[in-house]
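Subject: for your reference before the review

Hello V.,

The reviewers asked for a structural picture of the protein, and I figured it would be easier to keep everything in one thread rather than splitting it across files. Below is the amino acid sequence we used in the manuscript, unchanged from the supplementary table.
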Amino acid sequence: MSHEMVQYGGGELYPADRRRAGRSVSRMQGSGAVRQSRMDVETDVTMNKLDNVTMATGSGMRAVITVAQAQQALEQMMPSASGRLAMLADDHALGVADVLADLRYRARRI
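And here is what came back from the structure prediction:
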């Protein structure tokens, strides 16, 4: 069997060593491409999570404002019910906060 020596970057390599080096470089490049793709996907997922949580938070804030405006209007009609109305509005606001906390918890698991 002939062992042909080939000049490679200042040193000589046998063809089998050259093939082995080529496969090693190819594996490293493939691994890098997979890692980069994984990072790109994770970035997209993170950005979508932020967008979704932001939209849900805005919706929650609008819901709290709607109830607060209704509370204020009803208190003007019946001032003696202000404590009860405040309790209901606070319970609603806490419910909204709870729903948003659940969303953030579920988003962490995705």
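For the response letter, the relevant points are probably these. The chain has a mean pLDDT of 91. The chain has one domain: 15-108.

Happy to draft the paragraph if you're swamped.

O.
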